[in-house]
Amino acid sequence: MTWRSKFDSREHELIARRWARATQHQIFTYGVMFRASDCATCRKSIMMRLMAPLLPPIELTAPDKLDILQRLDRYRKWRSLEDKRYCLACGQLIKGRDIVVVGGTRGTGPLRLVCPTQQCHSIPMDWVIPTDEVFKRMAMLEAAKYSPRKSNARSREKFSERLRRFALHFRPAA
Predict the structure, then answer these.
(1) What are the DSSP calls for 110-153, one per residue?
(2) Which residues neighbour 6 within 8 Å (Cβ) at sequence distance 6 or greater?
């Protein structure tokens, strides 16, 4: 028995006990559901996110990479490797040439497309074709990143006044 099956069986026992205590006065015609139907896929997606940086990218020629982009991106069409997409996860503009292809043979599962940005593991579903609205949003985010923060001395004065008034309650009587 592996450690995972031991963990799952203990987890099932605890859930079953809690459920039995909570519903001992009720009669149900259906069996106990220990886990939501999508939990297995949740665990798999978490594992894939953790494994994505560990898998080395596959080196491909330009025509092969374009073919894979066209085949694996079901959401948008790729006409060339110079086509750009906006990643909703990291906010970067990416080219088809830069997209990382991981997976494949040797037990690492099917081919997958991953965002080339460091620490971003988004997939084609998270990439949109850049429009004027996207460029405006990018410009606003860039401006907000580099704009100096305004100091609000007036609110600091108010806070210090409130703090003084609060401290007066703790002064010893003269």
Answers:
(1) S-EEE--STT----GGGEE---HHHHHHHHHHHHHHHSPPPP-H
(2) none
Contact predicate 149/123, CB 8 Å: no
Distance of CA 98 to the CA centre of its chain: 20
Mean pLDDT on 53-67:
83
Buried b (16+ CB within 10 A) or exposed e, 53-74: eebeebeeeeeebbebbeebbe
Residue type, 25: H
Cα(154)–Cα(173) distance, rounded to whole angstroms? 31
The whole-model pTM stands at 0.51
